[in-house]
Amino acid sequence: METIRNYLENMFAGLPNTPEVLKAKDELGQMMEDKYAELIAEGKAENEAIGIVISEFGNLDELAETLGLAHVMGEEQAENGRNVTREDVQEYLKCSAESGFLTGLGVFLCITCAVGCMLASVSPFPGIGENAAMAIGVTMLFAFLAVAVGLFIFGSVKMNEWSFLKEERCSIDYATSEYVRNEQNNFRTGSALMMTIGVILIIISVVPVSVLGIMAVDDEGFVMIAAAALMLIFIGIGVMLIIIASTKSESYKRLMGLNRQGTVAGSRDHSKIHYETKAVETIMEVYQPTVTCLYLIWSFITFDWYITWIIFPVAAIVRKVIEVNFGKENRG
Asked: Is the Cβ–Cβ distance between 248 and 241 less than 8 Å?
C-alpha cells in the first residue's frame, strides 16, 4: 500500500492545493485502496495487485473528468517545470556537502594564514636566522591564502552545474521530497552539534590569550604570540564547522523549496521565502552569518557580553521587516 500512496501523491503533486483537488485525491485514494483490498482477497500477490491498481487508476488524464478535475489539468502540470530526480538530489547533496567543506577549509586557512609569521617573529626555527624564519612565515601566509582561493574556486565550480535549481523552475516528486525531509531531519542533531561546537570554540578562543597572558612575563614574548596563534586556530575551526553545517542545512532548504507553493506538493513546505530582487536575496543568504560575526566582533572588542546579545532580537526584527516588504510567496 505504501507504493500506491506514493504513486497517488506523485499524481497530484503539481495540481493546485484546493479543497476540490484534495477531495478528488481522497476519492481516488479510497478507490485504489478498495481495489487493492479486493485483489488481495482474491488471492493476488501484493506486487501483482499493486500493478493492477496502478494500471487501472494510474492515469490522471483519463480520470480527470470522472474526478471533476478536467479544468485544472494540463496547464498547472506544465508549469511545474524541470523534474529533479532522486538521483539528482543525492548528487546535489553530495556536491553541496563537498563544497561546504572546501569553503569552510578555505576560510580556516584565511583566518590562520598569519600564524606562521606570528610564531616566526618571536621564535626562529632552530638553526635558521631571523630573516629566514620570517621568510618561511611569509611563504606560509601566501601559500595558505593561495590554497584558500583555490578551494573557493573549486567549490564554486562544483556547484555551477546546479545553478539551474536557482535559475529554472523545478520540482521534485513526493517520494523524493520525503527522502529529502528524512535526510534533513537526520542531520538536525549533527547540525546543531556542529553549530554549538563552532560557537563554543569561537567564544573560548579568548581563553588562551587571557590565561597565558597572565602567566607571561613579557607581553611581547613567545607565550603571548603562541596564545594569539591558538586563538586564531580556535576561531578558524569554529567558523569552519559553522560554515559546513550551514551549507548542508541550506541545501536541504533549497530542495524542499523547489515545489511551488499553492500546489499539493509545494504546500508541504512553507519555510522558503523568495525576494523581489536578486540583490535582496543575496544579502539575506548571508544575513544570519553576518549578524553572528558582528555579534562576536562587538563582544570581543568591548567584552560587554551582558548587552551584546541584543543584536539577535534586533536582527530578527529587521529580518521580519525585510521579509514583509521584499519577500513574496513561492508561486513559481
From this structure: no
262 — pLDDT class (breaks 50, 70, 90): very low
| Mean pLDDT of the 268-274 span | 52
Report the distance separating Cα 268 and Cα 85, nearest Å.
Answer: 18
Residues listed for the chain: 332
pLDDT tens digits, 84-114: 888 889 999 999 999 999 999 998 998 888 8
The mean pLDDT of 160-173, rounded to a whole number, is 80
Can you give the pTM of this predicted structure?
A: 0.63
Question: What are phi and psi for residue 123, nearest 5 degrees?
Answer: -145, 80
Over residues 47-68, mean pLDDT: 69
- Span 270-293, mean pLDDT? 69
CB atoms under 10 Å from CB of 56, counted, come to: 14
Tell me, letter by letter, the H, E, C secondary structure of the chain: CHHHHHHHHHHHCCCECCHHHHHHHHHHHHHHHHHHHHHHHCCCCHHHHHHHHHHHHCCHHHHHHHHCCHHHCCHHHHCCCEECCHHHHHHHHHHHHHHHHHHHHHHHHHHHCCHHHHHHHHCCCCCCCHHHHHHHHHHHHHHHHHHHHHHHHHHHHHHHCCCHHHHCCEECCHHHHHHHHHHHHHHHHHHHHHHHHHHHHHHHCHHHHHHHHHHCCCCCCHHHHHHHHHHHHHHHHHHHHHHHHHHHHHHHHHHHCCCCECECCHHHCCCCCEECCHHHHHHHHCHHHHHHHHHHHHHHHHCCHHHHCCHHHHHHHHHHHHHHHHEECCCC
Closest to 233 (Cα-Cα) out of 111, 72, 78, 151:
111
Amino acid at 85: T
* Least confident piece of the model among 152-161, 166-175, 211-220, 232-241: 211-220
For residue 74, what are the CA distances in angstroms to 61, 71, 286?
A: 9, 8, 38
- For cell 602567566, what's the residue? 215
Structural domain boundaries of the chain?
A: 2-78, 83-268, 273-332
